[in-house]
Every structure is written in structure tokens, then in C-alpha cells.
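Technical annex B. To support the medicinal chemistry partners, we prepared a structural model of the target in complex with 1-O-phosphono-alpha-D-glucopyranose, based solely on the information shown next.
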Amino acid sequence: MNASTHTPTATVTKAVIPVAGLGTRFLPATKATPKEMLPVVDKPAIQYVVEEAANAGLEDVLMITGRNKRALEDHFDDNAELEQALAAKGDTARLDAVRRVTGLARMHHVRQGRPLGLGHAVLCARSHVGDEPFAVLLGDDLIGPGEGLLEQMLRVRAAYSGSVVALMEVEPDRTHLYGCAAVERAGEAGPVDGRAHDGEDALVRVIDLVEKPAQGTAPSNYAVIGRYILDPVVFDLLEKAEPGHGGEIQLTDALRELAVSGDHPVHGVVFSGRRFDTGDRASYLRTVIELACERPDLGPDFRSWLTDFVRAGHEAPVR
Ligand code: G1P
């Protein structure tokens, strides 16, 4: 492998969030609005992801955007007119909520002109990221606030160098929806299969990866969920990558090359905490309901309404 001169000990400071997708599964809602701006209770989905990055200390955030994504830039920018109006009304709670968004991270944007796949989107980050390891967070996956997944992945990168992916066990009939990993124990030094001590998720070594394997052919039921810490060597591989699954440049294929060659290890953190999928309508609705139930301000009333609603539904005559 012709690796670039990278710095294995460099700390991770940058997060890359690809948001160029068309959001076709939510049309017509996403005709003029980015799908990442759809509200999950009262925050757009993308805000949860940026908060997760900022909470893990990654305050330099690069969004890989496309057409129709202006609202994403605006959301994380100052809105002086709105702030003045809220201040004039003395609505400090909402004013704080609006200002907090702007202060979360230093936001940068680059356009992915053509929809050539996740691997191509990540490659668009190259000149901003440079020769440093970096995080990638996919916007369809929301990780439960306070789960500490990204923080643990950053510790794994610091300890082992190379790249790190988040894995989750899924039902065998769902492996075709994900990148799937073949794994082995992570070696003497680290925690091994099974729930590790100190509340950490288990660590494994990834030895192979397949993007969206056909039903019945997955190497395991460990699915890649949308969190990665990537060594910058991945850019070299993405530059040379041929189109893979769906005719797109796949990040999974570049990571597979690293995992198989063994020169730059790929580790997997087997996440056992809470992940919410906002990528399709049904799972988006479940996410909104679950997070609304947990909110101290809305939850108690909402839960009791929901209980009554479900009970009434069950008792309703079949029409
Ligand atoms: C992408 C990746 C896939 C990963 C998934 C996680 O697929 O290509 O490897 O498992 O995200 O959400 P997408 O869901 O964008 O098709």
C-alpha cells in the first residue's frame, strides 16, 4: 500500500458529516428542505449529531453538502433578527436555545457536486482535514445522548492508531442494509469480546468488511453504524477506488482494503447502547416518539396521552 506520510499519534479534532443525500424517502417533505432539518421533537436531526461531535471535543465540523442544503448552513449561523426579536420579548429560554446552536462548533462546508457515494463524500473532506485522523458521523444515525460512543472510539484510536468503526449486532435478516464486518478478538492489550469492564463497549479487530451483503452472505451480524474514526491514509484509497455497491464509491470498500492488508488496523467498538435511526419514515417516527417520551418538559403528558391513544386503538372496533 502506498500510504501517505501520516501522523499516527495526532489527536482527532475534526468531524466530517456528509449531508448531500437527496432524502427521497421523505418526499415530498424534503422537496425544498434537507432531510437533516426534519425535527426530532424540537431540534433538527442534524443538531443531535453536531452536539454529539462537540460533546466528544470535536468542535471543527465540516459538512459535505449538496444542492438545497442552505438551511443547514443557516441553522448553525447567527440569526440577528430572530435574536433581537426574542430579546425584545424577554424570551430568554428560547434566545438561549437559539444562541447555543451557533456556539456548538466551528462550522465549515464543502459541496459534493455529484452524488458519487459516501466514499466520494468523505474524499471531498481531504483538503480541509489534511493529514490528520478525523471522525465521520452519518446523520441518519442518532446515538443516545450521553452514551459516550465517540469518546470511546477516540480512546481506541489513541491506543491502537489506525481506524475505528462503530458496530452493532443486528438481526440476520437486516444485514443487507449495512456494511458488515468479519471480526476477531482485539488482542491481549485491549478488552475482548463481550461487554468490557468499566461500562465500555467491547473492542474487536475488523478483518473484513462487505457493503450491503446479499441476504444470507454476510460475514457476521456485526453491522457498521454511522460513526467512524478514520486514519488519513483512507484518502489515498478513496482516490483510487472503483465504484462498488450501487455503482457508488464506498467508504466500506476503502476500509476493507485497510482491514485485509493489516498495515493500518481497523478496530470495531461493538456498541450496545441506544441508537436511533432517522433514515426512513417508520424508524424516524419511532425516534421522535421515544425521545419525546423522555423529555422532562413534554414526556409526562405525552406518555399519558400515548398510553390512552394506544389503549383506545386496541379497543376500537375493526372497521
Ligand atoms: C451507510 C454505509 C453503510 C453503513 C450505514 C450505517 O449506508 O455505506 O456501510 O452500514 O451507512 O447507517 P447508507 O445507510 O447510507 O446506505
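Notes passed to the chemistry partners:
The CA atoms of residues 74 and 225 lie 28 Å apart.
The chain has two domains: 12-139, 147-273.
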